[in-house]
């Protein structure tokens, strides 16, 4: 019995029987066999002794006066200490019903009277060994459960045949199942997972069921109150005797704290501690990815290094606390200033930075250290555009800073390098931008400088053009030239196109190809476009008053004008001011403007139609060239671009495109205007296709209003004349 001792003492057996002879004989036998014994003569006495002594095994007679063995057994099982104590029922009853009642009451086993004392001692030893194993197993399970709770770990089992998942209590609580809801359908289990992860989890389980292979996957679960858990799940397939998947079992662990810790470590390794912006290490990684995308797509990118002028004075005179405040605010302004596919991120302590989600079109703000910042412009149309960003940044940082009770103003020196002109890797671009920045400081600070001299010259010219463009608007330096449009069937004039021209104070004409893109990027196209519309409408009304016939006016718009809030109201006001009827007014837009935001475009076009004016598509064929969109928009006409007209009489491809375009436009009841008509052969071909109108140098180049008025007078016709006005060439 040494192996069955409890804390060095023999196991204690409680004998409960109202027959004192049975108790005496049994006690003598058990003590000789090495057991310790206590006795109770009835049910109430048994409950007292049971509570006081805590026996290893209870031997309980069934038939007793008062409280019988069934009632005592049930009471012991319901007591705090009786849940796992083996209870042997002693019965002289020879019926299966009594045995069933004994087991229902919680009995472990039974033995019949009269007792065979030799068999009894062996039976008790077996019971005690079994209890020891069960106790060890329960203790092991308890330790495992504690370890799982500490590790935030649970287990699960999925049976594909039934579709049910059985979750451990810990897992059910972890993922947010209801109380007692540990067996659920697969759909119910998946419904607890964040939507972006559901398909991946269902696919992983299905793959294990189909292939017999294990899986490992992570997913998120949103708990009540908005908390989000990150779960790591592993599963293995269990096969039956035939080799088919019987079930998939596995574990799931809450790794949220680990992920948070990893993110903190990553922040420390990749982000600046003062501003929360990417540090140099992370910047080099991001810039390398951006270069790969730019190289693949054949586009340029720019790197701007900004240094705050005389920042050391701020630290020395006002303290590093004030300096850090300025750095944080400068970082915030830089993030707000850059444009493109960038998104804001917030670090653990609430600082804000910006880094893009798509490496192929990434704008990034970073802090190199000290008072140096870096901006990566992942997609620039022209290298000199980055100089405009530098000026915008300088203006943003030039606004006063409030720090330490003082108002502080700063200036910056900026160096710019461009991929691939100034380098094809991150380090080269950073080094060359840094060199350009030092050159800007040498030039007197508070300025930007390109690394490449030719780019610097272009940036200077562009800045000068922007400055002079603003002056031109104030000094009335813009003119409107007109080019006639001809009705092909009759050969008479049916309208004209007005083109904006800029004659500087020194008499020099500036090409629209140079100043229109700058006007669009700076927003100056809006006041210039309004001026063109107002001037053209007034001129049209004047020609009408002179008896040259009702003139229909159409205006070619940029995307900036079209998308600007209040555009429709502004057009209506211009028409009222000029005294021009809306049904004599037509707007021209390019394909790209229309399809940029289809729903918004349709809404604006319907508002314009409600005013009573017409809408046409300009430069058709050079943009998306999708004929299907024509029926979606409320349109009245389209203009075939000059690039298709130029070789229409000699190039079969151009001829086929123009033929198909005219046929489709007419089937949609749209007028067709051909641009760039310069030869009789082109005109003859267009006439054979039934094209409605033509314009080009075959008839006249663009001319000033006085010359065009004379031209109209000579070719006066008693029919409506359509006038087309463009705000750009």
Observed structural traits:
729 residues; alpha/beta; Rossmann fold; Beta-Lactamase; Alpha-Beta Plaits; 4 domains; 9-stranded mixed barrel; 6-stranded antiparallel β-sheet; 25 helices
Topology:
Layout: E1 12-16, H1 20-32, E2 36-40, H2 43-53, E3 57-61, H3 69-78, E4 87-91, H4 96-105, E5 109-112, H5 117-150, E6 153-159, E7 164-167, H6 169-175, E8 183-185, H7 186-191, H8 195-211, E9 215-222, E10 228-239, E11 245-254, H9 256-270, H10 280-297, E12 300-308, H11 311-318, H12 320-337, E13 343-346, E14 352-355, E15 363-369, E16 372-380, H13 385-398, E17 401-403, E18 406-408, E19 412-419, H14 426-442, E20 448-450, H15 453-474, E21 478-487, E22 493-503, E23 509-510, H16 512-522, H17 525-545, E24 551-556, H18 559-563, H19 567-578, E25 585-590, H20 591-596, H21 598-611, E26 614-620, E27 637-640, H22 642-645, H23 652-667, E28 671-674, H24 680-689, E29 693-694, E30 703-704, H25 705-714, E31 721-726
Parallel strand pairs: 1-2, 1-3, 3-4, 4-5, 19-20, 22-31, 24-25, 24-31, 25-26, 26-27, 27-28, 28-29
Antiparallel strand pairs: 6-7, 6-11, 7-8, 9-10, 10-11, 12-16, 12-19, 13-14, 15-16, 17-18, 21-22, 21-29, 21-30, 22-23
């Amino acid at each position: 019995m040494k192996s069955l001792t409890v804390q060095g003492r023999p196991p204690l057996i409680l004998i409960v029987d109202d027959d004192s002879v049975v108790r005496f004989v049994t006690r003598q036998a058990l003590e000789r066999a090495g057991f310790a014994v206590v006795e109770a003569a009835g049910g109430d006495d048994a409950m007292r002794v049971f509570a006081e002594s805590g026996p290893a095994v209870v031997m309980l007679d069934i038939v007793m006066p008062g409280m019988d063995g069934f009632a005592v057994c049930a009471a012991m099982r319901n007591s705090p200490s009786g849940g796992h104590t083996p209870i042997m029922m002693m019965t002289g009853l020879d019926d299966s019903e009594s045995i069933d009642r004994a087991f229902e009451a919680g009995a472990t086993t039974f033995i019949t009277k009269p007792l065979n004392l030799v068999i009894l001692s062996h039976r008790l030893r077996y019971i005690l060994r079994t209890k020891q194993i069960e106790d060890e197993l329960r203790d092991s399970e308890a330790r495992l459960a504690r370890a799982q709770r500490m590790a935030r770990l649970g287990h699960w089992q999925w049976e594909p045949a039934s579709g049910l998942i059985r979750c451990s209590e810990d897992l059910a609580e972890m993922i947010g199942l209801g109380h007692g809801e540990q067996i659920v359908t697969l759909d119910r289990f998946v419904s607890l997972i964040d939507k972006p992860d559901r398909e991946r989890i269902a696919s992983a389980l299905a793959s294990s069921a189909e292939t017999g292979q294990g899986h490992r996957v992570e997913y998120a679960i949103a708990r009540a109150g908005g908390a989000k858990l990150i779960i790591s799940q592993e599963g293995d397939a269990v096969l039956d005797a035939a080799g088919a998947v019987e079930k998939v079992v596995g574990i799931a662990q809450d790794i949220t704290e680990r992920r948070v810790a990893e993110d903190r470590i990553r922040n420390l390794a990749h982000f600046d501690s003062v501003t929360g912006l990417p540090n140099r290490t992370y910047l080099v990684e991001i810039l390398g990815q951006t270069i790969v995308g730019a190289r693949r797509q054949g586009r340029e990118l720019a790197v701007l290094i900004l240094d705050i002028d005389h920042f050391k004075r701020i630290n020395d005179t006002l303290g590093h606390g004030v300096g850090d405040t300025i750095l944080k605010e400068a970082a915030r302004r830089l993030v707000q200033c850059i444009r493109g596919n960038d998104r804001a991120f917030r670090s653990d302590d609430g600082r804000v930075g910006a880094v893009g989600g798509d490496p192929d079109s990434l704008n990034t703000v970073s802090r190199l250290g000290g008072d140096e910042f870096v901006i990566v412009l992942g997609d620039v149309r022209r290298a000199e555009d980055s100089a405009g960003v530098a000026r915008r940044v300088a203006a943003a940082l030039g606004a006063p800073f409030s720090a330490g009770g003082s108002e502080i103003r700063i200036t910056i020196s900026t160096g710019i390098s461009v991929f691939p002109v100034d380098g094809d890797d991150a380090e080269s671009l950073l080094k060359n931008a840094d060199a350009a920045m030092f050159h800007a400081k040498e030039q007197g600070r508070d300025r930007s400088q390109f690394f490449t001299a030719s780019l610097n010259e272009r940036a200077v010219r562009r800045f000068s053009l922007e400055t002079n463009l603003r002056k031109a608007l104030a000094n009335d330096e813009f003119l409107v030239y007109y080019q006639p449009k001809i009705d092909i069937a009759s050969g008479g004039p049916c309208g004209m196109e007005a083109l904006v021209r800029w004659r500087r104070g020194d008499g020099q004409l500036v090409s629209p190809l140079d100043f229109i893109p700058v006007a669009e990027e700076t927003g100056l196209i809006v006041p210039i476009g309004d001026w063109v519309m107002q001037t053209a409408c007034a001129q049209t009304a004047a020609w009408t008053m002179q008896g040259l016939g009702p003139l229909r006016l159409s205006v070619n718009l940029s995307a900036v004008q079209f998308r600007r809030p209040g555009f429709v109201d502004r057009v209506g006001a211009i028409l009222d001011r000029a005294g021009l009827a809306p049904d004599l007014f037509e707007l021209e837009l390019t394909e790209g403007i229309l399809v940029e935001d289809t729903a918004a475009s349709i809404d604006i076009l319907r508002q314009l139609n409600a005013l009573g004016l017409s809408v046409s598509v300009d430069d058709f064929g050079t943009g998306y060239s999708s004929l299907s969109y024509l029926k979606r928009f409320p349109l009245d006409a389209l203009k075939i671009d000059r690039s298709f007209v130029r070789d229409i009489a000699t190039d079969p491809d151009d001829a086929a495109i123009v033929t198909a375009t005219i046929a489709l436009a007419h089937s949609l009841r749209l007028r067709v205007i051909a641009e760039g008509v310069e030869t009789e052969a082109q005109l003859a071909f267009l006439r054979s296709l039934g094209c409605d109108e033509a314009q080009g140098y075959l008839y006249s180049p663009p001319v000033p209003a006085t010359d065009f008025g004379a031209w109209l007078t000579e070719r006066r016709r008693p029919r409506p004349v359509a006038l087309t006005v463009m705000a750009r060439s």
